[in-house]
Amino acid sequence: MCLAVPSRIIEINDHVAKVDVDGVVREASLMLLEDVKLGDYVIVHAGFAISKVDEEAALQTLEDMRTILAADALNINSPNRHP
Predict the structure, then answer these.
(1) CA 27, 33, 35, 36 torsion: positive or negative?
(2) Could you tell me which residues are beta bridge partners of residue 21?
(3) CA distance 23 to 70
(4) What residues form DSSP beta bridges with 48?
(5) Is the pTM of this model over 0.70?
(6) Per CATH, the architecture of 6-76 is what?
(7) Under a CB-based contact definition with an 8 Å cutoff, are residues 50 and 43 in contact?
């Protein structure tokens, strides 16, 4: 299963972008998209930016993911956790 995480474009060199997700920077090919610019949010799969995402939706998705991960971390560390 793959998880699509919105990534913000922080640099573009030809058809390759550097994208950032919470401080983690990776490279992604822009060959499949047109009209992307610095600051845009994209979904990256297998090293390719495959779609643009509205900034509001991207930020909400990232916040929701942080909330879920925090809740999961609390559950894992809970002494009442049952396998």
Answers:
(1) negative
(2) 24
(3) 17
(4) 29, 45
(5) yes
(6) Roll (2.30)
(7) yes
Q: What does the pLDDT read at residue 18?
A: 98
CA nearest 81: which of 64, 67, 71, 65?
A: 71
Secondary structure class of 61 (helix, strand, coil) = helix
Could you tell me the two tokens for 78?
A: 């809970």
Confidence of residue 7 (pLDDT cuts 50, 70, 90): very high
For residue 9, the one-letter residue type is I
* pLDDT (tens digit per residue) in 11-60: 999 999 999 998 999 999 999 999 999 999 999 999 999 999 999 999 99
Length of the chain: 83
Q: Is the dihedral of CA 9, 50, 30, 5 positive or negative?
A: positive
Q: Residues 59-63: contacts with CB within 8 Å, 24+ apart?
A: 59/6, 61/5, 61/6, 62/5, 62/6, 62/21, 62/22
Q: Cα separations (Å) of 11 from 16, 24, 63, 71? A: 8, 13, 23, 33
